[in-house]
Structures are given as structure tokens and as C-alpha cells.
Design brief:
The complex is a heterodimer. By secondary structure, chain A is an all-alpha fold. Chain A contains eleven helices and two strands. Chain A has helices at residues 2-31, 38-56, 60-81, 91-113, 138-160, 162-172, 174-179, 184-206, 217-231, 236-257, 262-276, and strands at 128-131, 134-137. Chain A has a two-stranded antiparallel ribbon. In chain A, helix 1 (2-31) runs antiparallel to helix 10 (236-257), helix 6 packs across helix 8 and helix 10 (236-257) packs across helix 11 (262-276). Chain B has two domains: 2-148 and 284-357, Response regulator (Rossmann fold, 3-Layer(aba) Sandwich), CATH 3.40.50.2300; 151-279 and 370-387, 3-Layer(aba) Sandwich (Rossmann fold). Chain B has helices spanning 2-25, 40-59, 83-95, 107-121, 133-136, 151-164, 179-194, 213-221, 233-245, 262-268, 296-307, 313-332, 337-345, and strands at 26-33, 63-65, 68-78, 101-103, 125-127, 143-145, 170-176, 198-205, 226-230, 252-256, 276-278, 348-351, 354-357, 371-375, 378-383. In chain B, the strands form four sheets. In chain B, strands 2-3-1-4-5-6 form a six-stranded mixed sheet, with helices on both faces. A four-stranded parallel sheet of chain B has the order 8-7-9-10, sandwiched between helices. The longest helix of chain B has 24 residues, at 2-25. Classes of the chains: A mainly alpha, B alpha/beta. The interface between A and B is large, with 44 and 40 residues.
């Protein structure tokens, strides 16, 4: 029974992880940008949901609808106005740029919101779902389902829509895509916008679950890194599988080895995957 | 090309003179703090306490040093919640900023790490947030702490629980793997075993853990009567929520050190109800001090006037560190480090913080820390008897 409960905990945690990583993976895979800002965008999405709920009483699930267009616009503008200027530069330069922007955003939030930890407390709480001896918190479960739905939508967008196909084309071969008439800069901006949208939306979901503070971004970013390497870069199903795998591994690691080993275990896993299967579980070989 | 250089040289020269001039009539106290990073909320609290002390002292004309009065200046350095940087910051404050005294970085771990530096240079150092005995057992002469050892928290707590609920005998302990949270968890284990309780679970979790579900699931399987969890605000907000998520309930749930903070109560909401905790100070204590703040009431009033909120133990301890340093300097009649150090070692006075007397290791031995429980969304003192506001309530859901 203990094992089943831990598996349930792990899967739900993994669903949240998948949501944290999907946008990060997309941006890294398509743009070859390691977007250090991703963690802080999640936090910003959390604050948006927190204030929407505490001031206007908007439910965090509903505030995703506000966060999504706002964060898409923010990401689009950032890419079009700033990052596109140095997109052709080596990856370390764009990393430095997003690192700098992240410092500005994190410290801006520190000034604006103070360092206090806050959390959305739903009134009345969503409670827990009991299935036999198993208990599953409804807020986590719903957040996980929404997160997976969002990630699924992103997958469909990439697989079916015209713009999605263009994104995939740019990812495969930028020059060839440009020759086929794809406006590469615009596709970059749309992709970054989508990545930001995913960050903002997952932030709104996570605000009910994790305490929010301006400086917790790096914790999310660390998870996103591990998940991307596990699942394979730029692949949406990869982020989903990677997230679920990490959630389950951490949960059982904590059960069998003790909770102090859950975090080191995830990074050990990262190194192992890099050695054994550098392209990740679902990544394509030869594509970085 | 020449002019900017000449200008810069002039500016540098003026700066040197300014420092030289100010060095004569101000007392510079260095304070390395984790102003950014995960511990930044703690730095804000420390700063509030130090600033309130400095402002109050300066408004009264400064600290009396022999025949003259000297103003106080606190020099802050951000060590970004990174302990090795706290050590560097302490060294920089002493060697470059030429501070005469030091307030320790936050918490037992960083205080212990930085205490080697202040000892090396012979700079009297007051630790406002370090309680673990392991910080003070290095034989250092210049380190003084305002928190009593950890067992002064777990002992009265265990007595109260034992008395109120004799049926409580299965204890589960989950501790953050960090100097203070782990040290107090180990004291709790001793206190519990001493009273014949059995510790059915004892595990550590890593700093930065985002999920406690596995540990809590295991604890639930042990059906403990008393869950004792340690960590800082973010850890314990998440953990309390996950306990509810897993329907983990117990007659007694104790969390240290967050519940003394209003932000923890705000971030956990109704789940904070009946959680017990202990701290080194509470605004309800009543002492008549000889320090600049006078009584506890007048300290609380001043604090509230400035920050529009009640002081918690961390904020009060920082202000107390300043007040104690001031009294030691005034007693020594000089800012000579060795003489102020001796004044601290023989210190025996009552302050708004409580009676202050340091033991041979430099750690305070004279305080009786209050035990409290969140009742109706407010910390309610249940021990010591003299300031009791309510009785222990059993059952945390």
C-alpha cells in the first residue's frame, strides 16, 4: 500500500514537473537558448495568480486564462526586441543575456513583492480524494491534469498547425526553413512566446502547491534542466516522460534511500543519462 | 584624458578623509547578511532589529564611550545565502571596512563558519540567530550568542506534552539537513527518549527539497502521536500543506522554527491551527531592562511604531544584540576590542530581551524560552507559567 501511495505521489509530482519543463525544453530545443529566465517566469506567473486570487477572487485555474496571453506577449516581445539581436551568437552569450535578465526580474520582484513566502490558500480547500487506502490531493491532481492538457495542446500545436510545423522545420534546419519561405525571426519570437506562456501558466498552477517567493526560480530551473536531459531536448512528449520519470524516481528514492537523497538522486540520474543516452529518452540522435 | 583621472584621485582622497573623519566619532559594526537568495526573509528581519537599535541609539545622541558620545553605523554586506561567501564578507568587513565589532551571519551554520575569522582578528562578535551548542564549543573568546542551547526548547516542550497527554509516546521526527534544524531534531530525540517515548521515525531531508510526500507517507504508516518537523519558512509551509494533502493527522504537531513568524501563519492559513513551537522570545514576555529600550513593552511599542507589525524573536534578538553591545561598550568605556570582549564575558544585566549572562562558551545561559501554540491564528504562549496565555490543545488536523 505504501508503495502504491508513493507511486501516486510520484506521478502527480511528475505531472507538475512536466509542466515546469515543457516550455523550457521547447525554447532550448528550437532556439538553442538556455533560458535562465524560465524559473523566474514561473514565479511571476505564481504572483499573478496569487494577487488575482487575493485581490479579485479569481480562481488560480481561471487565472491561467489571464496568464497565458500576457506571458505569450511578454515572451514574444522579449524575443523580438532583445534576444533576436544576438540569436546567432554562441549559446553562452544568449545564456548570459537571459541570466542577466533573470537577475533583473528576480530582484525586481524582490523589491516589488518583498522576500516573504506566500501561498494561495483556497477557501474552501479542494480537499483530498480517497480511493480505498490511497489519498490524492485534488488541487495537485487537477493541476497535474491541466498541466498535462497544456503540454498536450502544445504538442498538438507543433504537430498539426501550420505555425507548429514551421517551428519544427526551423528546429530541424534553420537555413532550409528560411529558403522555404519561413520567417525565422517571427518563428523564434512565437516559440519564445509559447515557452513563456507555459512558464506563466504553470506558475499559476504551482502557486496553490508550493510557497511563492521571488527567489525560488532557480529551484524550478534546476528541475527543468534534469527533465530536459532525461526526456530529450525540444521534444514535448520527452518533457512529459522526463517529468513523470523524475517525479517517480524522486519519490521512490526518498522512500528507499531516505528523503535527504531525493535531490542528489535526480542529479545522479542526470549524469547517468548523459553517459548512457546523451540524447535523452525520446530525443533524436545527432540533434542538439 | 588627465582631468577625469585627477577628478577620480580627488574623489578618492576625499573618500579617504571622510572615512578617517568618521572613524573617529562613529562606531562601525559589520553585519554580513543573506540579503538575496533563499534566506533573504531572514536578512530582512535581522536588518529591522539592527536598524531599530542603531536609530534609537543615535537619536539619543549615540553610545556613551568614556566622556564622549559616538554614533553607530552598521555596515551591511550581502552574502547571497551562501555560507562560504559569509566568511569572505566577515573578513572583508574587518580588513577593508575596518569595523570594530561584528554581528554574525544568519543561523548556526554560517555563524560557526564566520566565527573563525572574527576570532583570528580579535573582533567581538554577537550572534543573534545561533543556538546550536556546536557553534560555541570551539574555545573561541570573541563570540557571544543571544540564543540558549537547543535543548532549552525541546525540554519544556516535552514536559508539557508529557503532562497534558500521557498517551503520546510514538514520536516521528523529520529534519532539514542543516546545522540548526538537524541539531534541534537530535535534541528532540533525546528529550523524547528521556521521557520513555519511542522515536518511530527519524529522517533528514535535503536543503531545497520540493516534495515531502514520500517521507510523510512513511510517517503516516507509523501512526505517530507526535510529529516534530524542523526547517525554515518555505520548508514548513510546504510540509504542513502536504501533511493535509496526505491526511496525516496527529495529537501533537510541532514545527520549528517557522510558526513564530506571521508569514508562516498567513501562508498556511487554517492548517496552522494547534501547531506547537518554541522560540527564544515572544512579544508577550515582560522584562524591565536597563538597556536603551527599557522594558519589553516599550521595545514592542517602538518596533510597532516603525514597522507596523509585532516583532518576532529573530527581530528582537537582532535589536538585543545591538543593545547588549552598547551596554558592554559603555561599561568598558572604550571601543578597544579586548576590553569590550571582557565586558561581554562578565555581562550580567537584564534587558528587554530578558536576563543576559553569557556562559564560559559565550552562549547565553540566563533565558527561559517560551513554548507556544497557534490558537485562533495567533501564537499563544503556553509556557512559562508567568506569561501563559492558554493551555496546550491536542489534535492537529
Amino acid at each position: 500500500m505504501l508503495v502504491l501511495q508513493v507511486l501516486a505521489n510520484g506521478l502527480i509530482l511528475g505531472g507538475l514537473y512536466a509542466c515546469i519543463a515543457a516550455g523550457f525544453s521547447l525554447v532550448w530545443g528550437v532556439l538553442n537558448i538556455i533560458n535562465i529566465l524560465h524559473g523566474s517566469f514561473i514565479v511571476l506567473g505564481g504572483y499573478l495568480a496569487f494577487f488575482a486570487y487575493s485581490i479579485a477572487g479569481i480562481h488560480p485555474f481561471a487565472s491561467i486564462l489571464i496568464a497565458a496571453p500576457l506571458f505569450f506577449a511578454l515572451g514574444y516581445a522579449l524575443q523580438a526586441g532583445l534576444i533576436n539581436r544576438m540569436i546567432a551568437a554562441p549559446v553562452l552569450l544568449t545564456l548570459s543575456l537571459t541570466f542577466g535578465l533573470d537577475l533583473m526580474l528576480a530582484n525586481g520582484m524582490l523589491v516589488a513583492f518583498s522576500a516573504d513566502f506566500r501561498k494561495i490558500i483556497l477557501d474552501p480547500p479542494l480537499g483530498v480524494l480517497s480511493v480505498g487506502p490511497l489519498v490524492v490531493p485534488v488541487d495537485r491532481l487537477t493541476a497535474m491534469i491541466l498541466a498535462l492538457a497544456l503540454t498536450g495542446l502544445l504538442y498538438l500545436l507543433l504537430a498539426r498547425s501550420r505555425i507548429g510545423r514551421a517551428i519544427v522545420a526551423v528546429r530541424m534546419d534553420r537555413e532550409a526553413a528560411a529558403l522555404m519561405g519561413v520567417n525565422v525571426k517571427r518563428i523564434y519570437a512565437v516559440t519564445f512566446g509559447l515557452g513563456s506562456l507555459m512558464a506563466g501558466a504553470s506558475g499559476a498552477l504551482l502557486a496553490m502547491i508550493f510557497p511563492i517567493s521571488p527567489l525560488v526560480g532557480p529551484a524550478y530551473l534546476g528541475k527543468a534542466f534534469v527533465i530536459c536531459v532525461l526526456g530529450g531536448l525540444g521534444s514535448v512528449p520527452g518533457a512529459m516522460i522526463g517529468g513523470l520519470a523524475l517525479g517517480v524516481v524522486e519519490s521512490f528514492g526518498a522512500l528507499w534511500l531516505g528523503p535527504e537523497y531525493a535531490v542528489p538522486l535526480s542529479f545522479t540520474l542526470l549524469i547517468l543519462v548523459l553517459i548512457v543516452r546523451p540524447s535523452g529518452l525520446l530525443g533524436k540522435r545527432g540533434y542538439e | 584624458m588627465k582631468r577625469p583621472i585627477a577628478g577620480a584621485a580627488l574623489a578618492a582622497l576625499t573618500a579617504v578623509f571622510a572615512v578617517a573623519a568618521s572613524a573617529q566619532d562613529t562606531i562601525r559594526v559589520g553585519a554580513p547578511l543573506p540579503m538575496t537568495g533563499p534566506l533573504s526573509p531572514e536578512a530582512v528581519k535581522q536588518q529591522r532589529g539592527y536598524n531599530l537599535w542603531a536609530e534609537t541609539a543615535n537619536a539619543a545622541g549615540g553610545v556613551k564611550v568614556g566622556a564622549k558620545r559616538m554614533k553607530v553605523e552598521i555596515v551591511y554586506v550581502d552574502y547571497q545565502s551562501n555560507t562560504p561567501r559569509a566568511v569572505q564578507a566577515a573578513e572583508k568587513l574587518i580588513t577593508q571596512d575596518k569595523v570594530s565589532f561584528l554581528f554574525s551571519p544568519f543561523g548556526s551554520g554560517a555563524t560557526k563558519a564566520a566565527s573563525g575569522v572574527s576570532e583570528k582578528y580579535g573582533v567581538p562578535t554577537l550572534a543573534a540567530t545561533a543556538s546550536s551548542a556546536q557553534v560555541y564549543d570551539q574555545g573561541y573568546k570573541y563570540l557571544f550568542g543571544t540564543f540558549t542551547p537547543n535543548d532549552t526548547l525541546t525540554e519544556p516542550l516535552s514536559d508539557i506534552v508529557r503532562k497534558a497527554a500521557p498517551g503520546v509516546h510514538r514520536v516521528a521526527i523529520l529534519a532539514r539537513n542543516d546545522l540548526f534544524p538537524l541539531a534541534i531534531a537530535q535534541e528532540m530525540e533525546k528529550s523524547a527518549k528521556k521521557r520513555g517515548m519511542s522515536v518511530v521515525y527519524f529522517e533528514k531531508y535535503a536543503i531545497g527539497t520540493l516534495d515531502h510526500a514520500s517521507a510523510l507517507t512513511q510517517i503516516k504508516a507509523q501512526a505517530p502521536h507526535w510529529i516534530f518537523a524542523t526547517g525554515y519558512t518555505n520548508d514548513l509551509v510546504l510540509m504542513r500543506k502536504q501533511m493535509a494533502d496526505l491526511k496525516l493527522e496527529a495529537p501533537v504537531i510541532t514545527m520549528i522554527a517557522a510558526p513564530a513568524y506571521q508569514e508562516w501563519i498567513d501562508a498556511t492559513g487554517k492548517l496552522s491551527e494547534n501547531v506547537t513551537s518554541a522560540a527564544w522570545w515572544h512579544p508577550a514576555v515582560r522584562y524591565k531592562g536597563k538597556d536603551l529600550f527599557g522594558s519589553t513593552e516599550s521595545f514592542v511599542k517602538r518596533f510597532q511604531a516603525k514597522y507596523k507589525t509585532l516583532p518576532d524573536y529573530a527581530e528582537a534578538s537582532a535589536a538585543a544584540a545591538g543593545a547588549i553591545l552598547q551596554m558592554a561598550i559603555e561599561k568598558a568605556g572604550t571601543i578597544d576590542p579586548a576590553k569590550v570582549r571582557n565586558a561581554l564575558a562578565s555581562f550580567n544585566e537584564t534587558t528587554f530581551w530578558g536576563p543576559v549572562k553569557f556562559g564560559p562558551t559565550g552562549q547565553i545561559v540566563s533565558l527561559e524560552p517560551p513554548v507556544f501554540q497557534i490558537q485562533g491564528g495567533k501564537p499563544t504562549v503556553i509556557h512559562p507559567a508567568a506569561i501563559r496565555q492558554g493551555e496546550l490543545r491536542l489534535g492537529v488536523k
